[in-house]
Amino acid sequence: MDLLRNIVKLLLPHRLRKFLREVHRDFVFWRAMRQFMKDPDACTHSKHPVLADLIYGWGNATWSALEEYLAACIHHAMASRGPILECGSGLSTILLGVIAKKRGQSHWAFEHKPEWATKVQIYLDKYKLDSVVLCLNPLKDYGNFCWYDPPLESIPDRFSLVICDGPPGSTKGGRYGVVPIMLERLEPGCVILLDDAHRTPEIEIAKRWATELDSTFEICGAKKPYIKMTVVNNCPPTIAASHLRLTATGTVVQKAMNVFVLNTGRCGSTTFARACRHISNFSSAHESRTYLFGEERLAYPSNHIEVDNRLSWLLGRLDRKYGDRAVYVHLKRNIHDTAASFVAR
User: In whole angstroms, what separates CA 286 from the centre of its chain?
Assistant: First the structure.
């Protein structure tokens, strides 16, 4: 076989070889999709040959999920009781879209790369997978991490499964943002599958999630490990009782909460904001939206600590926007030291 490949390489130009390879990939993917759509349950086993064909046919082996993670995603999607959230889109979006359509559920996928979203949408349209809602938005800076900017007004109130394979690991904060941003929408029992457990940052993120969710996680898979975590309680134990609410079904969940640190300036506010970055279940920032106007000026994410002396001028607007979801902290310093610091500045 190796001899035959070497002969083909010698006889055929590079461009022609590339074209033939792409044609072959398309055929293999089409054939594998036909088999998968007939019996997706068979692909809950990582050694099923259809999975290998799907990965090869998709043609993004460097970044694509591998057999073990894909099989786990398929298994949990088949058992899911409600909507599925996917962070990052790709081959798994297509496969889980098939399952969602068969089960009459919805699958929401967040993506920040237009070229990648275009490719995925072409395949969604090709296979008529209208069960998938692909949300394309640039990544948003939440202070100490960047994450997707979800359309919170239109996505489901509860997700029973989260597939987390994005944003890229090089993003500030990596994939951490799904828990602080989507916390209220992760129902008890929701399973989070985080890919790339062979990387140290993913392990650290899982540890932070476990602390915030009062949960545990396990590392699964041998070839390319992934992390599985079950949301036991989406209300961290450190949240005050005044920021809890009781749902119609009797479930206690955490309300969205924002902490606004008011101050005079020259009183250690920058240092205070940096220290707040060690609080694992809140994001934090120092004067992060002072350059914005209108509604965007006060559009802080939920469970966020904002340190900004100018907010003292905007208390009326803050109250109208956040109401009893806001907690106010007044950062003080000796008045003479503060005045001397301003003079020295």
Answer: 24
Q: How many CA atoms lie within 13 A of 228 on its CB side?
A: 15
Cα 92 to Cα 87, 159, 168: the distances in Å are 11, 17, 16
How far apart, in whole angstroms, are the C-alpha atoms of residue 108 and residue 144?
Answer: 25
Here the tokens at position 88 are 């990052």
Q: Domains along the chain?
A: 40-230 (3.40.50.150), 256-344 (no CATH)
> Nearest to residue 127, comparing CAs of 85, 84, 97, 89?
97
Could you report the per-residue pLDDT of 19-46, keeping only the tens digit for each?
A: 677 888 999 999 999 999 999 999 999 9
Compute the distance between CA of residue 95 and CA of residue 53 in angstroms, rounded to an integer: 13
Q: Which amino acid is at 5?
A: R
Highest mean pLDDT among 18-22, 111-115, 286-290, 294-298: 111-115
Give tens-digit pLDDT for 197-217: 999 999 999 999 998 888 889
CA gap 3, 11 in Å, rounded: 12
Note the maximum CA span of the chain: 85
